[in-house]
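Example 3.2
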Amino acid sequence: MAEQAVELTPEEAQQQEELRQQWIKEHYQKANRFLAEKGVIPSNVLVDECRYLAPYVAVWKIESKQPSKNTYWVMSGDLPSDYVDVKVAGTAREALRHFSMMWQMKAENLVQSGATQDPTQAKFAELLVSRAESLYKIQSDDKLWG
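Structure, written as tokens:
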């Protein structure tokens, strides 16, 4: 089945962009709260290196000032928030691939350890696998990264 382009009126296009910008703002705040909960105090976001695929995922490159000066890739969206040191990936796309692999391994470790006997842990492992697979598809889709 062929994809069809949908023509938006200027008003619809503006409304869609406003919703996108609102989503980006909300998920930037979510990423900052997540870091703060982990004891990391953000100082700067490197906007040019961040990527957003609303309403699914946002990948932020954020510098911190505490507990030490460092830079992280932080992910938020329709998935668990997570972060890694910027040294593990040079781009937002590579960061998504890293999160995908890391989550697959975390889910496998939960299964291997027997933690998934607990229904809550089993659901979490399933969520990690599902989102890891989605992240892998997103990072491997060249059309999204132009």
